[in-house]
Amino acid sequence: MVNLYSVCPPPASTTVSTRDLNASLTWTPPQPPRAWPQTWNKKRKRQNDRWICREASEVPMVFRKKNPAAVMVLGVISSEGHVMPPHFFEPKQKVNQEVYLEVFSNVVKPWIDNVASGRKYTFQQDSAPAHKAKTVQAWLKENVPHFWDSQTWPSNSPDLNPSCATHHSSVEALKSSITSVVMSLEAAEVSRSVRAFRSRVETVVEAGGGHIK
Fold first, then answer.
1. Which of 32, 47, 95, 191 has its CB 3.0 to 4.6 Å from that of 81, i.e. a possible disulfide?
2. For 9-42, what is each residue's pLDDT tens digit?
3. Sign of dihedral through CA atoms 185, 189, 191, 193?
4. Whether residue 114 sits in one domain with residue 55
5. CA distances (Å), origin 201, targets 42, 123, 161, 177, 195
6. The domain that contains 151 carries what CATH number?
7. Structure confidence by residue, pLDDT tens digits, 62-95
8. What are phi and psi of 3, to 5 degrees?
9. Is residue 146 located within the same domain as residue 173?
């Protein structure tokens, strides 16, 4: 959506009574300073762009693709380099707490137990809505010896869980690419990435929770 502004001559002068002026000033609450760099950053919020123009044709068009094809996938790795085969959810399936818990109990937990082979482990996940749901947290407390609860993982931590966006020609191509890359990961590479997690946490803490890259 593009909002247009036209250059217009100044309006005729109007007068405001002292009573109305005082009422307006009294009613208007103090406003915090606006973050102009964010509001006008075209790369982040292009829908908020404003243009001064005489013709609509002077405004560049912004094209968006509505409801692009997508795939929801769940992956799990271990600090020793083990990689669980990616689990793909059904197309358009809403991953709520019931769906997530079913997959976790029937797919993820058995895989973890097999890899751990009776050894102690700590399970870690982010604070997505399905992950931090009370039923899921209660199930984890009862069935997983050690895990990071929803209060431990930062609420918004992209720097602790980095990912890259890559465009694919179709959902099947995306799924094939995910499977190929995940299953080709070397154990040493995965283990090295997990060991670097602590230093990333410390860097984020030093930055006061701010962006580090």
1. 191
2. 444 445 556 666 566 555 555 555 544 444 444 4
3. negative
4. no
5. 30, 17, 10, 29, 11
6. 3.30.420.10
7. 767 667 777 889 999 898 889 999 999 998 889 9
8. -100, 135
9. yes
